[in-house]
Structure formats: structure tokens, C-alpha cells
Amino acid sequence: GLDEEQIVEWLIQILIAVQYMHKSRILHRDLKARNIFLRSEKVKIGDFGISRILVGTMDVASTFTGTPYYMSPEVMKHDGYESKSDIWSVGCLLYEMCTYEHAFNGKGLMNVIYKVVEGQPPELPTTYSKELNDILK
Question: What domains can you pick out in the chain, each with its CATH number?
Fold first, then answer.
């Protein structure tokens, strides 16, 4: 995996960007490695093609959308998509930065869905700090 200091720096930038989106009432709904770009050591989030702007205070996006490896259990169960679903995706990105693997992997879509909905979130390799692993949880 990558150096922990670098991962933390990128993670902070991603979280600041996601916080800005959410304060602007925008759900990205497809945060994944392919939509995170580095430009001059700065993280940029791209591909807002399926993002959603929320109107009401209790609004939840109800469309089943996104990339299965990064989808939250709520989205998998068709309970709607809200800001915490984007945060779940950031956790999946953190795991991927540390291991170069998906947090929830499986043979086929149904296996991935089962692992996300029923499984335990994986732990980071022991080469990473307990604090970083705690963030993942």
C-alpha cells in the first residue's frame, strides 16, 4: 500500500471536498477510485454525472445507483441514498488506498452485495496505525 502520511493527506482532502458537497446539499453517489484525480498533489473529485441535489431537509435520493464495490448497505437494501452513503464510499476508498484491493470483493455482483450488507468491514493491514484503522470503522 501507500505511505500512511500520504494516505491521510489525501483522505483529509477527500473528506473536505465531500463536506463541501454535502453543505451545498449535493450527493455525489458514485465516489470511487476512478473518480478521484490528483493534480499537483491536490485531490479533485470528478464525474458528477449521477450526483443529486437535495431540496428538503429530510430528502433522500431513492435511485439505486453507483458502483457496487463502493455502495453502502442502505443503498444495497434500497433504503435510499443520503450523505452517509458518500462517507461509506470514502471508507472504501481508504481501504483501497491502503491495500490496492476493494474493501468488499467477491465473485459476482450478488456475492459483493452479500458481503456489504451482511459482512464485517475489513481491517487494514497491521502496517497501518490503529488510528487509521479506527477511522475506517
Answer: 4-121 (1.10.510.10)
